[in-house]
Amino acid sequence: MPEVDRGPAALVGPVRIIGAGLLGASIGLALRARGLDVQLEDLDPANLRTASGLGAGVPVAGDETEPQLVVVAVPPDHLAGVIEGALEAHPGAVVTDVGSVKSGPLATVAAHADVARYCGSHPMAGTQHTGPLTASATLFEGRPWAITPHASTTPEATQVVTGLAELTGAMPLTFAPDEHDLAVARTSHVPHLMSALVAGRLADAPEGHLALSGPGVRDVTRVAGTDPGMWLQIVPANAPAILELLGQIRADLDRLESAIQDGDREALRGVLANGVAGTKAIPGKHGGPVRPTTSLFVHVPDRPGNLARLFADVDAVGVNIEDVRIDHDPARAGGQVELVVDQARVEDLTEALDARGWALHQ
Ligand SMILES: NC(=O)c1ccc[n+]([C@@H]2O[C@H](COP(=O)([O-])OP(=O)(O)OC[C@H]3O[C@@H](n4cnc5c(N)ncnc54)[C@H](O)[C@@H]3O)[C@@H](O)[C@H]2O)c1
Ligand SMILES: O=C(O)C(=O)C[C@]1(C(=O)O)C=C[C@@H](O)C=C1
After folding, report:
1. Which domain holds residue 297?
2. Which of 49, 65, 156, 157 has minimal Cβ neighbours within 10 Å of its Cβ?
3. Where are the beta strands (DSSP E) in the chain?
4. For the residues 53-68, what does the mean pLDDT come to?
5. Residues with CB under 6 A from ligand 2
6. From atom 30 of ligand 1, which residue's Cα is the shortest distance away?
């Protein structure tokens, strides 16, 4: 195991994680990779076994050293109760949670005598899966991680929770809990609901129509595939902020309908241009500016080892793959692999892959 990286925030462990699902197990894996001791708790013995089997930490036995930090990673409805339980069970520890909404749990925990040791947080990383099986040590790398101290959080608690985000490779950003909830309504909750509405139109589509599903519909609907369980708890917990944005979208939808009905291209251009402006406003990885990327499409015959060969050929040119997507080619036995790469390197890459015999187009 590598040396403990003490980092500027002095999180040295042990860290106790309550809830060893996707988030809890991923945090455990990331901290174990940095050499910290991780203790795991979960109500579900199967999840606990899976998470510890993957190397995310050791199930608690009752005789371990008291933790420096407790991370609560249970479903939204249970956060407040488990945070209060952690403050009581571990009187020397800082307590945080990774819940998707911050004001609700805080409103309950605020009355607790030891609330100064609690500092909320929220990593903006996840997948459409739940449970520890798809946990990953690299889930948080380069992603924003909101740190949400409240009025009486101690500076030490904020520092330790910031250290947690840093040790997982995430980018800590401080927000007041209310401001955080307004922000994620816009960047996470409403986008999720919009994705569900668009995907819902596919559920009863004539079968033949869905054969024409290209990358566009997959991009817009990916998160709609998530198990609804967590979202059934997130959405009511952030209802006012979500309703405000849905009202604005309803007005946009009315304007869009009129533009289409009236054949008003200028109004339509306005709606589309606003969308372009919105996508450009999203910061790039690590919070930097969005770097221009280009997609290169490569036909990959359906044979074992071909994908590995393609990735090795890209690596040989020293080009980083920013994103990748695979679509099955209805016409040929193979897949269409979309490689998203730095625009400045696309010519080099095209030349090199072409020379190695790959069939490609931009
Ligand atoms: N999945 C995401 O994309 C994502 C991203 C950021 C934050 N979050 C937040 O993280 C939290 C966990 O989400 P997840 O996706 O890891 O869920 P998950 O379902 O994968 O894991 C939750 C785990 O908590 C356990 N659990 C439930 N109640 C418990 C209790 N009282 N005590 C101990 N263990 C308990 C469950 O058995 C399960 O193993 C949620 O609050 C969610 O809002 C999720
Ligand atoms: O990547 C995904 O699948 C996610 O939806 C992750 C996502 C998000 O909206 O970005 C979802 C909810 C969490 O609270 C944080 C992250």
Report:
1. 293-361
2. 65
3. 15-18, 38-41, 58-59, 69-72, 94-97, 120-123, 144-148, 171-174, 293-301, 321-328, 334-342, 359-361
4. 96
5. 100, 124-128, 188, 223
6. 43
Dist. CA 256 → ligand 1 center (Å)? 38
Expressed in angstroms and rounded, the spacing between residue 125 Cα and the centre of ligand 2 is: 5
In a domain, 134, yes or no: yes
Question: Is 306 part of a structural domain of the chain?
Answer: yes
**pLDDT score for 289:** 59
Q: Of ligand 1's atoms, which has the minimum distance to the CA of residue 100? A: 43
Q: For residues 35 and 126, state if they share a domain.
A: yes
Average pLDDT over residues 49-78: 97
Give the per-residue pLDDT at 317.
87
> What angle, rounded to 10 degrees, do the helices at 239-261 and 190-203 form?
50
236 and 261 part of one domain: yes
| 320 confidence band (pLDDT: 50, 70, 90) | confident
pLDDT of residue 334: 79
Domains in the chain, number: 3
ipTM of the complex, rounded to two decimals: 0.98
Q: Whose C-alpha lies nearest to ligand 2, atom 3? A: 127
Domain-located, residue 1: no
Judge if 141 and 47 occupy the same domain.
Answer: yes
Q: Note whether 226 and 298 are same-domain residues.
A: no
pLDDT for the residue numbered 325: 81
**Local structure of residue 222 (DSSP, 8 states):** G
Question: Pocket of ligand 1, candidates 223, 230, 231, 233: which has the most ligand atoms within 8 Å of its Cβ, to mutate?
Answer: 230
Using the predicted structure, report yes or no on whether residue 291 has a pLDDT greater than 80.
no
Q: Are residues 329 and 239 in the same domain?
A: no
| Residue whose tokens read 């740190």 | 147
**φ, ψ at 345 (rounded to 5°):** -105, 0
pTM of the model: 0.84
Note whether residue 9 is domain-resident: no
